[in-house]
């Protein structure tokens, strides 16, 4: 909630306090492990910290400490669950931001493939949450893959991915529409 209110320092402070408490107090860790919520919750915290650190590092490109901070959070999340789509999405955008195009493509393609894979139908409430998560992961991976295609000057592929992203989330920001316009301009499709 702090993050949504623009209180970034409080957001980071609360998440770091939770991580510190769990790392120091094994009773808390044992409680959550027994309830089966530990891994999921901790991965979400590390992912939130990684996304926040990535956002800060993008605003101050060149600071090696910020890059290391993002990597540290990603590695901590990976140590708990290597298959978490959100972690893979953050990895993809991290690699993209720092020019590691092949690594970015690997991570984003992994998320895209998992988001588009057919899954077995489970209980309706859980299935509904998984469907919602898959849409989020699909949208993010489409934007990342579209950006990669644009960087590689594969404008028709970029246009396809940006269009799919817009179709996936029609309420997305204007930047997706501008990206579509940029692709059509590069492809000289002026109609």
What is the ordering of alpha helices and beta strands?
A: HHHHHHHHH
Q: What is the helix tally?
A: 9
* Strand content bin: under 5%
- Number of E-type strands: 0
- Unreliably modeled segments: 120-126
Mean of all residue-level pLDDT scores: 81
User: What Rg, in angstroms, do the CA atoms define?
Assistant: 18 Å
> For the report, how would you describe the main beta sheet?
none
State the end-to-end CA separation: 44 Å
Helix content: over 70%
- Overall SS class: mainly alpha
Anisotropy-based shape: elongated
Please tell me about this protein's structure:
There is one protein chain. The chain has helices at residues 8-24, 26-35, 38-59, 64-80, 85-97, 101-116, 124-151, 155-168, 174-186. The protein is mostly helical and 191 residues long. The longest helix is centred in the C-terminal third of the chain and has 28 residues, at 124-151. The model is unreliable at 120-126 (pLDDT under 50).
List the helices and strands and how they pair.
Elements: H1 8-24, H2 26-35, H3 38-59, H4 64-80, H5 85-97, H6 101-116, H7 124-151, H8 155-168, H9 174-186
């Amino acid at each position: 909630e702090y993050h949504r209110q623009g209180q970034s320092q409080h957001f980071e402070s609360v998440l770091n306090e939770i991580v510190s408490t769990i790392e120091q107090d094994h009773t808390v860790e044992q409680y959550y492990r027994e309830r089966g919520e530990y891994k999921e919750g901790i991965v979400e915290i590390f992912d939130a910290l990684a996304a926040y650190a990535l956002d800060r590092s993008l605003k101050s490109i060149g600071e090696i400490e910020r890059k290391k901070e993002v990597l540290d959070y990603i590695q901590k999340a990976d140590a708990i669950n290597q298959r978490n789509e959100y972690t893979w999405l953050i990895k993809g955008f991290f690699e993209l931001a720092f020019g590691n195009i092949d690594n970015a493509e690997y991570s984003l393609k992994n998320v895209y493939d998992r988001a588009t894979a057919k899954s077995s139908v489970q209980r309706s409430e859980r299935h509904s949450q998984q469907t919602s998560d898959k849409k989020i992961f699909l949208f993010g991976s489409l934007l990342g893959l579209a950006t990669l295609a644009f960087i590689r000057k594969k404008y028709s592929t970029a246009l396809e991915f940006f269009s799919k992203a817009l179709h996936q989330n029609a309420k997305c920001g204007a930047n997706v529409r501008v990206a579509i316009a940029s692709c059509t301009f590069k492809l000289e499709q002026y109609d």
